[in-house]
Specification:
Layout (H helix, E strand, L loop, with lengths): L2 E2 L1 H13 L4 H20 L6 E6 L3 H15 L3 E6 L8 H9 L4 E2 L5 H8 L5 E5 L11 H14 L6 E5 L21 E5 L2 E2 L7 H5 L1 E5 L13 E3 L2 H7 L14 E5 L6 H13 L4 E7 L3 H5 L6 E5 L1 E3 L2 E2 L3 H7 L6 E4 L7 H11 L7 E5 L1 H6 L5 H4 L4 E4 L2 H8 L7 H12 L2 E4 L5 E3 L5 E3 L12 H13 L5 H23 L13 H9 L15
Parallel strand pairs: 1-8, 2-3, 2-5, 3-4, 5-6, 6-7, 7-9, 10-21, 11-12, 11-16, 12-13, 16-17, 17-18, 18-19
Antiparallel strand pairs: 14-15, 19-20, 20-21
Helix pairs in contact: 2-3, 3-4, 9-17, 11-12, 17-18, 18-19
Amino acid sequence: MKIVTIEQMRTIETRSERAGVSTEALMDNAGLAVAERVRHHVGALDGVPIVVLAGPGNNGGDGLVAAAHLRDWGAQVTVFMCLERSQPNPKLEVLEANIGDTVLVWRGDGFRTLENALPEARLILDAILGTGRARPIEGTIKRVLDLLHVTTAMPSGPTLMALDTPTGLDADSGAVDPSAVPADVTVSLGYAKRGHYAHPGADHAGRLEVVDIGIPPDLDEDVDLTLLTSDWSRVALPRRPSDSHKGTFGKTMIVAGSRNYVGAAYLAATAATRVGAGLVTVAMPESLVGAVASKAVEPTYLPLPESSPGVVSPEAAGLVLRNLSGYSALLVGCGLGQAQPTHDLVEQLLLAGADLPSTVVDADGLNALSRVTDWHRRLTSDAILTPHPGEMNRLTGDRTPDDRVRTATLFASGWHSVVVLKGAHTVIAHPDGDAVLSPFANPGLATAGTGDVLAGAIAGLLSQSLSRGDAAKLGVYIHGLAGERVRDDMGDTGMIASDLLPVLPKVIRDLRMGFVASDEGLGPPSQ
């Protein structure tokens, strides 16, 4: 599913007009699609009170079309026009005439009528501004939104459904006006918008539902941002032939762990095993091997010489390189620590021109790279870099734009690497400029060790002959969906990284068998 900017959406609508589908036809389709989503959420409509808040532009027009359908289907619909139209619009005037009387909020006792109607509604449809907001909200619309805040905060209050975007949410940046009211459901027309996945806008959008409005196919070929989906992930899963052996699914080498972060090696190695890697080897300080091996018995181990207890020696780089023959993926960095000998090890392993398999660099591997001038010019392997925002700032010298998508794509291109910029709605950017967003934003994953699980999962998938981009995307999706399953089971407080490990293969099984709904993880459940 593609994700568009406001300008891209306008371009697509223009192309649609040229292709024979007019703006009026799109409005009719949009209004019908929104009305159908209202019926889906409300159920039987006979006598159900519904309030439609309509603005003066196309978003309001979509709302008026929806109101007409809902009234035809038996709902008790009241339409409130929230702003006077600055110039005549024959299409909207016809729509207003077709739905009967409307209440003009800014005239007479219109505001008092709205104040009385909102608490009685089962559902409120916000069709005031949509993507058309260009300046701070004030005046009549601010008064309407202030009243809407009070209404939606009431116990068992009405469901608030936004048409395209909640009023006051910037559809490009995700910035939110102080007056904006969070929606329970946002019905996005034709495409999701970037602001739906950028915070704080993502929290204000609630559950996102994208509806088809009849835009002809192939008008969006220049849109370079897409959303990870279960359909794509199912197709991307590595095949598991019945005559397989462990060599079929590749060998993964993981260089990880230090005296303060012993668990990182366990989490990464187990994740790589759980996503199907045929053999996983953990290269770690020799004094720590016993502690990890007693918990993770499936991997093999390559004990590394130490510069001090629990801190790997730079000379270990040579030992790792001599043992890499036959390995299809390398992961460097989980829990290595930031001692100087560790930095030297990373530099000798990754930046000395050695012939490496496809490599994932995470955590302290990234921190070590950030201390080397022009590190990206010396990184010779096909790398996947998995920074969180702090690590990204260190890698770039604090030159990151505010826009996460722009940040990831800009530096993926400059570094000739796949960049996985972690966080809510993780961004996966490819050097060619394409980017993909994760649908998942789960506060339960904001805990130590979940990044090690993700890095291990990506490396384990990479060893199974997936491309860098596909391994990164699939790892992010499986990891995120596992987090959703754990949250469903125990809530998002107190989740720990190891909770994800036994769920990873279950998610893969469900994906393979088609048991994952196409919209799973797109947002919180609607009321």
